[in-house]
C-alpha cells in the first residue's frame, strides 16, 4: 500500500495541523453543492457516452464541461473555471459540432452509435472505475482541503505564478500551438481536389479556424 | 630465360589466355580470336624451345613447395624428360592447329569466345599434366580436362545428343577417377611423396608395398581418361561435340593423358605382373572390339572415334610389353594424323551437309569440292592403316616389334603372355584398321549419284591447317624412329622384318578385301536412296555439323547406325554388324548395371523423402499453424478491440501491483 | 472539503470517458470521450493543487499551471484530431472507427472493394487520391 501509504502519511501531516478531520456524515455546504453538481456532471457525461443522438451527445458534453467549470469554482480555481468555459464550452464543443456536421452525422437517433465492442468496454470501464475508486478512497478518505484563507486561484495569483515560474513551458506551449496550427492547415490542404467545393471550403477552414481560435483564446488568456 | 621459366610459361600462357577470354568474351568479342590463337601459338614456340634445350638429355627437374601440409608434401614440380618435351610439343602443335581451325569452323557461332577460352584452358591443363613432376598437380590438370571436356562436348547443348554425351563423358571419366584418386593416395602413402622422381626412386628400391593394388586402381582412371575397355563408351558419344574439339580430345589432350601417365609411371606397373597382364588384356579387347565397331559405324566421326580407341589400344599394348618408347612414339604420330583426320572430317561434313557415310556414298564428286581434305585425309588414312612409308607404319611396327621381342623372350620386363596377347590382337587390329580406313575412304570419296552441293571453297584457316598437319603424317615416321630413341629410354624403334611384313601384309589384305566387297555392294547404292542433309548448308561449319548430328537419329533411326545395304562393312561383318554398330551393347550393360539401380535408388530416396520425412515435418508444422490461426483471429484491424485489450491488461496489472504493494 | 469527493468524481469521469472511447463508433464521439478523460485529469490537478497549496510549502501552483497547459494542449489536440477525422471521412466516406480496418490480417491494400468506403465515394475519391499522390 505504498502509494496510499505515502499519501496517507502526507494527509496525516495535514490532519495533525487541522487537529480534527470532519466526518463524511456532516457535510459542509460546499460539499453538498460539490456533490450535487458532481452528480449532474457525471450524469451528463454518462449520457454523452451513451446517447444514440450524436448532436445531443455534444450538447450533453457542454453540460458536463460546464459542470466541471462550476466544480473548479468550488475548488477556488476561478481563473481555470473561466478558461474552461471559454475554451471548452466556447470553442471545443463548437468545433465538435462542426465536425459532426461536416462528416454528415445523422441527426436524430442512430441505432449504430455504439460499436459491437460495447460490453467489453463496459466491463473494462467498470473494472477500472472500481479499482480507481477503491484506491482513491482508501488513500484520501481522511484528507481535508482547507478552502478558506488566501485565494489561490485568482487571475492575479495564477498570472504571477505563470509568468514567474512557468514562463519557459508557457512559451514552449506557444510553439506547440503554432505547430498544431500549421499541422491543421497542412492536413486540410491535402483535400484541395475535393469535388464538392462547399465541403472543401468548410473542411479547409474548419480545423484551421478552430486551431487559430484556440490560439487566439490562449493569447486572450494571457 | 632459364628452361624452367620457359617450361612454366608453356601451360601458363594458354591459361591466362583462357582467363582473359572468359572475362572479355562478352564485352570485347573482337579480342576473342587473338586471345585464343596467340597464347597457344606462343606456348607452341616455347614448348619447341624447351624441347630444343632439353634435347633428350638429362631431365629438367625443378620444385617449389608452396606451403607445408603436415603430411605428404605437395610441391609445384616440373619434370621434363624427352617424353614430356616431345609430348608437349605435339600437344601445343595440335592445339594451335585446332585454335586456328576453330576461327573458321565456328566463325558465326555466338558462343565462340567461351568456346575458345575453354579450348585454351583444356590445352593448358594438358600441358600441365605433361610437364608436372608432382602427382597432385597432375591430378589438377587431369580434372580440369575432365570438366573442360564436359563443357566442350556439350557445346551444341541445344541438341539432346550433345547434352547426354557431355554428361556421359563426365560421369564415365569420373567413374574411373575415383579409384584413380585412391590409387594416387595409396601410392603417395607408400612412397612418402607425390614427386615423380621420388616415387620412381622408391619403385627402383622396392619401396612400394602394394604395386598390384595401386597399379590396378590407377589403371581404372587411365581407362576412363584414355577410353580403354570397359570405360571407353563415352568417347564415341563425345562426337556430338564440335569437330575441332573432337580433334583436340582425341589427338593430343585428354585421351593421351592416360597413356602418358602410364608411360611416366611405367616402372611402377612393371613391378606387378598382374597389372601388366591386365593392361595387355585391356589393350587387346579394346583394339579388336573398337576396330570391329568402327567397321559398322555410319557417322564418319564415330568411325574415327572408334579408331582412336583402337590406336590407344596399341599404345597401352606397347606399355603392357613395357616399352614406353614405342607407346609415346605411337602417341606422337597418332596425335598428328588423328588431328588431321578429324579436321578433314569437319571440312567434309561441312561440304556434304551430313555426317552420314551412307549419305556421302550417294554423292559424287565430293572429293572435287574439298580437294585439300581429300588429299590430306588420304595421307592420314594411309598412316592410320600403317602403310609404309607413312608415319603410322613406323610407330605401329615399333609396337608390334616390341611385342615380338617379348614373345621371343628377349626382355624380362613383361610377361610373355602379355606379348602374345598384344601381338595377336595387334595383327588382327591391323587387318581391321586397314579395312575400316578403306571403307571410310571409299564411301566418302568414291560415292556415286547426284553431285555434291557446291558451297565454294572452305575458309583458308581450315584448309591450311590440314596441310600443316599432313607433313608430319607423311614424313615424321621415317626419320623419327632413328632420332627418338635418343630422347626416350634408348630402346631401338626400328621396325623388324617379320612384323613389318606381317603387319603390312594383313593391312593390304584388309584393304583389298574391303575394296572387293565395296565393288560388290556399291551397285545397291543407286537402288536404295538414303540420306538427309543439313537444312542450312550455307551456314558456318559448326551449325551444319550441329544440324547433321541432330538429324541423324530421326533420319536413320539411330545415332550410330544406318540401314544401308551398300555398306561393305555390313557384308564383311555379317551377323556381327548389328552388334558392332551399337558398340557390342556395352551401353545396355551399363544401363542395367548402373543407371537403373541408381534410378531405382533415387526414386526410393524420393519416396522416403516425400512420404516419410516430409510427414514428420508437416506434423511438426501443424501445431504452430493452429496456434497461428488462433492468434490471427485476434488481428481484426479494429482499433477499439486492441485498445480494450490493452486497457484491460493495464487494469489487471494495476490491480495486481496494488495488491502486491499492500501485501494482500 | 474532503479530497475524496473530487478524486472520486475525477475517477468516475475518467472511466466514463474510457467507456466512450472504447464503445463509441463515431470518431467524433470518441474525441468527445477523450475530452472527458482530459477534464477528469484537470479536475484532479485542480483539486490536489487546492489541497497542497495550503498543506505544503511553496508549490508554485503547479497543479493549476499544469491544468492550464492541459487545456491548451487539449484545444490543439481537438483541432488536429478533427482535421484528421475530416481527411479520413473525405477519403473513406466514413468516420466509423470500426470500419477502418486496414491493419487487419489478410487485408489487401490494393483492393478498393475491401473497405466499404470504396463504394461510398467512387470516382472523385479515386481522382483525388491520384492527384494527391501526384
Automatic annotation (TrEMBL), chain C:
Membrane topology type: Multi-pass membrane protein
Main location: membrane
Keywords: Cell membrane, Membrane, NAD, Oxidoreductase, Quinone, Translocase, Transmembrane, Transmembrane helix, Transport
Residues covered by region (Disordered): 99-134
InterPro entries: NADH_UbQ_OxRdtase_chain4L/K, NUOK/Mnh_C1-like
E.C. number(s) listed in UniProt: 7.1.1.-
GO molecular function: NADH dehydrogenase (quinone) (non-electrogenic) activity
EC top class named in words: translocase
Superkingdom, taxonomy of origin: Bacteria
Transmembrane portions of the chain: 66-89
Localization in the cell: Cell membrane; Membrane
Keyword NAD: yes
Compositionally biased spans, kind Basic and acidic residues: 99-109
Catalysis: reaction(s): a quinone + NADH + 5 H(+)(in) = a quinol + NAD(+) + 4 H(+)(out)
Subunit field text: NDH-1 is composed of 14 different subunits. Subunits NuoA, H, J, K, L, M, N constitute the membrane sector of the complex.
Role, per record: NDH-1 shuttles electrons from NADH, via FMN and iron-sulfur (Fe-S) centers, to quinones in the respiratory chain. The immediate electron acceptor for the enzyme in this species is believed to be a menaquinone. Couples the redox reaction to proton translocation (for every two electrons transferred, four hydrogen ions are translocated across the cytoplasmic membrane), and thus conserves the redox energy in a proton gradient.
Family label: Belongs to the complex I subunit 4L family.
Descriptive protein name: NADH-quinone oxidoreductase subunit K
The encoding gene: nuoK
Amino acid at each position: 500500500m505504498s502509494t496510499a501509504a505515502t499519501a496517507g502519511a502526507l494527509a496525516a501531516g495535514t490532519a495533525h495541523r487541522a487537529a480534527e478531520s470532519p466526518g463524511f456524515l456532516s457535510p459542509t455546504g460546499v460539499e453538498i453543492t460539490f456533490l450535487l453538481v458532481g452528480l449532474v456532471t457525471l450524469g451528463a457525461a454518462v449520457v454523452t457516452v451513451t446517447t444514440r443522438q450524436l448532436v445531443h451527445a455534444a450538447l450533453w458534453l457542454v453540460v458536463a464541461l460546464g459542470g466541471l467549470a462550476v466544480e473548479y469554482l468550488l475548488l477556488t480555481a476561478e481563473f481555470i473555471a473561466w478558461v474552461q468555459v471559454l475554451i471548452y464550452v466556447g470553442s471545443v464543443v463548437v468545433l465538435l459540432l462542426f465536425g459532426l456536421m461536416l462528416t454528415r452525422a445523422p441527426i436524430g437517433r442512430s441505432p449504430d452509435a455504439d460499436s459491437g465492442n460495447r460490453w467489453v468496454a463496459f466491463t473494462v470501464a467498470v473494472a477500472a472505475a472500481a479499482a480507481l475508486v477503491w484506491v482513491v478512497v482508501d488513500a484520501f478518505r481522511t484528507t481535508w482541503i482547507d478552502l478558506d484563507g488566501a485565494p489561490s486561484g485568482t487571475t492575479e495569483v495564477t498570472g504571477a505564478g505563470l509568468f514567474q515560474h512557468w514562463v519557459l513551458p508557457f512559451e514552449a506551449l506557444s510553439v506547440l500551438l503554432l505547430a498544431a496550427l500549421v499541422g491543421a492547415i497542412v492536413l486540410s490542404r491535402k483535400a484541395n481536389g475535393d469535388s464538392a467545393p462547399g465541403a472543401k471550403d468548410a473542411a479547409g477552414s474548419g480545423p484551421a479556424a478552430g486551431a487559430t481560435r484556440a490560439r487566439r483564446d490562449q493569447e486572450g488568456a494571457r | 630465360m632459364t628452361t624452367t621459366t620457359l617450361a612454366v610459361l608453356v601451360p601458363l600462357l594458354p591459361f591466362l589466355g583462357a582467363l582473359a577470354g572468359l572475362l572479355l568474351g562478352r564485352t570485347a568479342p573482337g579480342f576473342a580470336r587473338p586471345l585464343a590463337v596467340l597464347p597457344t601459338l606462343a606456348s607452341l614456340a616455347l614448348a619447341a624451345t624447351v624441347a630444343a634445350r632439353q634435347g633428350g638429355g638429362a631431365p629438367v627437374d625443378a620444385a617449389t613447395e608452396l606451403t607445408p601440409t603436415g603430411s605428404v608434401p605437395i610441391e609445384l614440380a616440373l619434370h621434363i624428360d624427352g617424353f614430356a618435351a616431345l609430348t608437349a610439343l605435339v600437344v601445343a602443335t595440335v592445339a594451335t592447329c585446332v585454335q586456328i581451325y576453330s576461327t573458321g569452323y565456328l566463325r558465326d557461332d555466338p558462343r565462340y569466345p567461351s568456346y575458345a577460352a575453354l579450348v585454351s584452358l583444356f590445352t593448358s591443363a594438358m600441358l600441365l599434366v605433361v610437364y608436372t613432376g608432382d602427382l597432385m598437380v597432375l591430378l589438377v590438370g587431369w580434372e580440369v580436362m575432365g570438366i573442360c571436356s564436359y563443357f566442350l562436348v556439350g557445346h551444341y547443348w541445344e541438341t539432346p545428343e550433345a547434352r547426354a554425351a557431355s554428361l556421359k563423358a563426365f560421369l564415365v571419366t569420373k567413374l574411373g577417377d575415383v579409384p584413380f584418386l585412391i590409387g594416387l593416395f595409396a601410392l603417395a602413402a607408400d612412397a612418402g611423396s607425390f614427386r615423380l622422381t621420388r616415387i620412381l626412386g622408391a619403385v627402383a628400391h622396392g619401396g612400394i608395398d602394394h604395386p598390384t593394388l595401386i597399379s590396378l586402381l590407377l589403371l581404372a582412371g587411365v581407362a576412363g581418361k584414355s577410353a580403354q575397355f570397359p570405360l571407353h563408351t563415352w568417347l564415341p558419344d563425345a562426337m556430338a561435340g564440335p569437330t575441332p574439339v573432337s580433334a583436340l580430345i582425341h589427338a593430343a589432350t585428354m585421351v593421351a593423358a592416360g597413356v602418358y601417365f602410364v608411360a611416366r609411371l611405367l616402372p611402377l606397373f612393371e613391378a606387378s605382373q598382374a597389372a601388366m597382364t591386365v593392361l595387355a588384356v585391356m589393350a587387346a579387347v579394346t583394339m579388336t572390339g573398337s576396330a570391329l565397331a568402327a567397321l559398322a559405324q555410319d557417322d564418319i566421326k564415330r568411325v574415327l572415334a572408334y579408331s582412336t580407341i583402337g590406336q590407344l589400344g596399341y599404345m597401352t599394348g606397347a606399355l603392357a610389353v613395357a616399352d614406353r618408347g614405342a607407346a609415346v612414339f605411337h602417341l606422337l604420330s597418332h596425335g598428328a594424323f588423328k588431328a588431321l583426320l578429324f579436321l578433314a572430317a569437319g571440312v567434309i561434313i561441312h561440304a556434304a551437309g551430313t555426317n552420314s557415310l551412307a549419305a556421302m556414298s550417294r554423292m559424287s564428286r565430293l572429293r572435287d569440292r574439298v580437294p585439300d581434305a581429300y588429299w590430306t585425309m588420304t595421307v592420314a588414312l594411309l598412316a592410320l592403316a600403317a602403310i609404309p612409308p607413312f608415319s603410322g607404319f613406323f610407330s605401329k611396327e615399333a609396337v608390334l616389334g616390341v611385342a615380338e621381342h617379348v614373345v621371343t623372350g628377349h626382355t624380362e620386363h613383361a610377361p610373355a603372355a602379355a606379348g602374345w596377347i598384344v601381338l595377336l590382337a595387334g595383327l588382327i587390329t591391323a587387318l581391321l584398321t586397314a579395312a575400316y580406313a578403306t571403307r571410310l575412304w571409299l564411301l566418302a570419296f568414291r560415292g556415286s549419284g547426284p553431285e555434291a552441293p557446291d558451297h565454294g571453297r572452305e575458309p583458308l584457316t581450315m584448309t591450311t591447317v590440314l596441310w600443316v598437319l599432313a607433313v608430319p603424317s607423311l614424313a615424321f615416321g621415317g626419320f623419327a624412329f632413328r632420332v627418338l630413341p635418343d630422347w626416350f629410354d634408348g630402346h631401338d624403334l626400328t621396325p623388324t622384318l617379320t612384323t613389318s611384313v606381317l603387319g603390312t601384309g594383313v593391312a593390304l589384305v584388309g584393304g583389298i578385301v574391303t575394296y572387293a566387297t565395296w565393288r560388290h555392294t556399291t551397285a545397291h547404292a543407286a537402288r536404295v536412296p538414303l540420306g538427309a542433309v543439313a537444312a542450312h548448308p550455307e551456314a558456318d561449319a559448326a551449325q551444319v555439323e550441329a544440324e547433321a548430328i541432330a538429324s541423324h537419329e530421326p533420319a536413320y533411326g539411330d545415332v550410330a547406325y544406318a540401314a544401308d545395304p551398300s555398306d561393305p562393312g555390313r557384308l564383311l561383318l555379317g551377323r556381327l554388324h548389328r552388334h558392332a554398330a551399337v558398340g557390342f551393347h556395352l551401353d545396355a550393360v551399363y544401363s542395367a548395371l548402373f543407371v537403373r539401380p541408381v534410378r531405382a535408388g533415387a526414386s526410393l530416396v524420393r519416396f522416403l523423402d516425400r512420404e516419410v520425412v516430409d510427414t514428420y515435418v508437416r506434423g511438426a508444422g501443424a501445431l504452430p499453424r493452429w496456434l497461428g490461426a488462433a492468434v490471427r483471429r485476434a488481428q481484426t484491424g479494429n482499433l477499439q478491440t486492441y485498445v480494450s485489450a490493452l486497457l484491460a491488461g493495464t487494469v489487471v496489472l494495476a490491480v495486481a501491483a496494488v495488491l502486491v504493494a499492500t501485501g494482500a | 472539503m474532503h479530497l475524496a469527493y473530487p478524486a472520486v468524481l475525477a475517477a468516475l469521469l475518467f472511466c466514463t470517458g474510457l467507456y466512450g472511447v472504447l464503445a463509441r463508433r463515431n470518431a467524433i464521439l470518441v474525441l468527445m470521450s477523450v475530452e472527458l478523460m482530459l477534464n477528469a485529469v484537470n479536475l484532479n490537478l485542480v483539486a490536489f493543487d487546492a489541497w497542497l497549496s495550503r498543506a505544503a510549502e511553496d508549490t508554485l501552483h503547479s497543479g493549476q499551471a499544469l491544468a492550464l497547459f492541459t487545456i491548451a494542449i487539449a484545444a490543439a489536440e481537438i483541432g488536429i484530431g478533427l482535421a484528421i477525422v475530416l481527411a479520413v471521412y473525405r477519403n473513406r466516406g466514413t468516420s466509423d472507427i470500426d470500419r477502418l480496418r486496414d491493419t487487419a490480417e489478410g487485408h489487401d491494400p490494393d483492393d478498393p472493394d475491401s473497405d466499404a468506403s470504396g463504394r461510398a465515394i467512387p470516382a472523385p475519391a479515386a481522382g483525388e487520391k491520384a492527384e494527391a499522390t501526384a
